[in-house]
Write a structure and sequence with these properties.
The chain is an alpha/beta fold. The protein has four helices and five strands. The chain has a single domain, classed as Vaccinia Virus protein VP39 (Rossmann fold, 3-Layer(aba) Sandwich), CATH 3.40.50.
């Protein structure tokens, strides 16, 4: 794969399961922003699966929003994303619009 292919995937993370399975989320290029790897999210949500449907979730230091959007994809009622970076919050809003879930998300631009 050429450089352009890698560059286009570098700032994306994939939703693993649920109604948005396979959908991509964008996140900004920010030093220190490292989305939770697929394997870790898969393990975490395997543990949480009995509790996730209908839950109200909080994604602190949201970054890519991968954990919160994964929870919503798997049936969480709502998710509040909190991040101190305005570019991150702007991207989270765009991802919520893309997934048409703005009514289930709250995005707070503040320090956690």
């Amino acid at each position: 794969m050429g450089k352009s292919g890698r560059a286009s995937q570098r700032n994306q993370v994939r939703i693993i399961s649920g109604v948005w399975r396979g959908r991509k989320l964008w996140f900004p290029s920010i030093d220190g922003l490292r989305p939770t790897p697929d394997r870790v999210r898969e393990t975490l949500f395997n543990w949480l699966s009995p509790e996730i449907r209908g839950a109200r979730c909080l994604d602190l230091f949201a970054g890519s929003g991968a954990l919160g959007f994964e929870a919503l994809s798997r049936g969480a009622q709502s998710c509040c994303f909190v991040d101190a970076n305005k570019d991150v919050c702007s991207t989270l809003e765009k991802n919520a619009q893309t997934l048409d879930c703005q009514d289930r998300t709250t995005i707070l631009h503040t320090d956690a």
